[in-house]
Amino acid sequence: MADEFGSADVDPSAFIGQGGIDQKVGFNPGLTVLVVVVGAVLIFAVGNYMLYVYAQKHLPPRKKKPVSKKKLKRERLKSGMAPAGD
Question: Which of 26, 34, 66, 85 is deepest in the core (most CB within 10 A)?
Fold first, then answer.
C-alpha cells in the first residue's frame, strides 16, 4: 500500500518551480492595470506641459480689460491728486 502512493521521505520542496496546476502563467493583472494607468497619466501630463510651453512661446499675451473713467477718477482721488477742473 505504501508503495502505491510513494514514500513519505520525499522532500516536497524538490517539486517547487517545476510547474503544475497551481502555478499561474502570464502577466499579473494588477501590474498590467497599474502600468496602463500610470502610462496614461504620464502621457497626459507631458502633453499638457508641451501645450503650455507652445502657448507661452507662440500666443500673444492677454489684453487687459479697459478701466472705466469712473474707476480712474476714484483711484486718483484716493492717491491724493486734485481732480481736474478744481
Answer: 34
C-beta of residue 76 within 8 angstroms of C-beta of residue 83: yes
Mean pLDDT over the full length of the chain:
80
- Compute the distance between CA of residue 61 and CA of residue 53 in angstroms, rounded to an integer: 13
Over range 44-66, report the average pLDDT: 92
Name the DSSP class of 26: S
Long-range pairs for 16-19 at CB < 8 Å and ≥24 separation?
none
The DSSP output letter for 9 is T
Q: Which residue do the cell numbers 524538490 mark?
A: 14
Residues 6+ apart with CB under 8 A from 2: 8
Measured from the Cβ of residue 80, the count of other Cβ atoms closer than 10 Å reads 6
Q: Is the pLDDT assigned to residue 16 strictly greater than 90?
A: no
Residues 6+ apart with CB under 8 A from 8: 2
